[in-house]
Amino acid sequence: MSTVTATSEALQLIDEIVADHGPVLFHQSGGCCDGSSPMCYPQGEFKVSERDVKLGEIGGAPFYISASQYEAWKHTDLIIDVVPGRGGMFSLDNGREKRFLTRSEICSI
After folding, report:
1. Beta-ladder partners of 98
2. Is residue 90 a contact partner of residue 39, using CB atoms and an 8 Å limit?
3. What's the pTM?
4. Are the C-beta atoms of 54 and 2 separated by less than 8 Å?
5. Taking the CB of residue 96, how many other CB atoms lie within 10 A of it?
């Protein structure tokens, strides 16, 4: 089963965003526009589908992935990191000149 963790840099960015916007949640994007970036939204402003799978929490923020992506990645551990650049258009990391990035490792079955 897949899990999600975050680097210390990602946890620090989450803290910064929460200080500015309040509680957040993450959804692993599979869209064409933002590639596979984890998207960060204010809690209550993103509708989580009944088909989304909650992988866990990072920095106190729930982390979801769509059921179809979960099927493809269910044997992968996701590691949320931070790199230089712009975040997704609707993600709260946009405009900070650093963005969240999903790294992965195959986990044992």
Report:
1. 84
2. yes
3. 0.89
4. no
5. 16
Please tell me the distance from the alpha carbon of residue 19 to that of residue 63, in angstroms, as a whole number: 18
pLDDT tens-digit map of 53-94: 999 999 999 999 988 888 888 888 999 999 998 877 789 999
As beta bridge partners, residue 102 has 80
Could you tell me which residues come within 8 angstroms of residue 87 by beta carbon, excluding any fewer than 6 positions away?
37, 40, 93, 94, 95, 96, 98, 99, 100
For 54-71, give the DSSP string.
EEEEETTEEEEEEHHHHH
Cα(65)–Cα(1) distance, rounded to whole angstroms? 13
Whole-angstrom Cα distance, residue 42 to residue 22? 7
